[in-house]
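Q: What would this chain look like folded?
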Amino acid sequence: MIGHRRAVRSACRAVACWAVLGSVAGCSDDLTQLMLVLDTELDVPDEASSLRVQVTGASGRTYEATAELAALRPATLALVAPPGESGGDVSVIVEVQRDGVRVASRSVATSFVEGHVKAVPVCVSRACTTSCPEQSAPGAAMNDWSGTPPMPCALPADPDAGVTGDGATPPPPPDSLGQVLFVQQLDGTGIFLNRIEIREGAAVERLSDVYEATFGDVEYPDDRDGALSPDGRWTIAKLGRGECSGWGCFFIGPSDEPAAMSPVRVRFTADTYMHELHPVVGNDADLIVWEGAPAVDGHEADLWLTRLVDEEWTMPVALTGASTYPFNKMPRLSPDQRSVVFSCSTELYSFDRICEIAIDGTGYREVLAPDRPPSGVLAEDTSSLDSPRYEPDGSILFAAAWTGRQLWRLRPGADEPERVLGPFDEDLSQPCVLPSGHVLALRGSPTSPPAPTIDVFDPDGQLLMQLDVDYVEGQYTWINDCGPP
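A: My prediction, written as structure tokens:
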């Protein structure tokens, strides 16, 4: 049963507190409760909201239920452990929707004992606690029912003073977790590079306006391919500005001084501006990897590397000559700057597969392919794996449409990826990861309404906030990169 408790909401006036309670008769001895608490600062109106819960048992079977929330009467649902699900982990995902659009969600893992589920707290924006004795319900199955929900077994006396699982008071969230670069393109107007701080209520900063003031106006702005060094101190981008108007060069500069960006000259047979695609830069701004011209017969695009030595960029060296795919593109540096993960494909406009290579050009390997989904996953779509990124521990984060657009993670040494969030949380693409382990992704379509948002999740998959990207209908939105403050 899922119930929105007005009593709970009034007890949590400082935030909008959503209690999701699973019980048929309170804390009775003959029926188990599934208790979930959603604590979020989002304003979700009663008259236009609904709740949905999905439980996936150790056997892989999934059970779910939904209910509309009326203004004066909370909805009620029952989800209790089905027979035969004893032992092993169970995934519980709960989502709050407004007008059919997800506004908050949370997933947790617990364990089934046949016939019942533990009471589990789930919080969206901060820690919270609740308790209810574990009960047994032999032979219980998933049920839907309606009626007046009972009071919860227990709620903390001070809902705003939540504690973590070990009893420690969580530290307050920082003012800003970092920064994210994203591109917006509007037909007939231009392509603009933007930045936004990763904090509640942050406003979009149009870096293209700074470049215009610095380098002068251009007829059609073309600012794209922004990337941050792993430590966030340096920004590199392809800008059609100044001497590079109309064709775009790589510009590099301190992240906190966008007006100090300057074009990169690299030695080929003579000094020349760099104007290819998707550059990434190292922590000391002395290493650049990018997507450029083919290096070997049969290739259409390869990755290249140059280093800054004695204040000059060296002759570029091809990294992907050993690749078995003609298109090698969109590189991302590992945190230790020893390897690169990238998209490898047979087609120009497809991300397709994920490949990896060491920074010295050795150890090329194909990591994952869309037509090889994880065991037990019946893929609905095998078109592409996109936006591979390294996480702090060396895992590879990416987006796939195997079961709806979702985020996946391949851990070091693992043969198969796992979902980053629960199976219920989808419509996500273009992931990015911070050194802290926080994950960002674009939710919604990059090209059509409703307006997309940049969702920010903590390392455990808890939704922290949604950043507004100032969407205008018809605008194409794409996350380039993210980094620390």
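The two ends are 42 Å apart (CA to CA).
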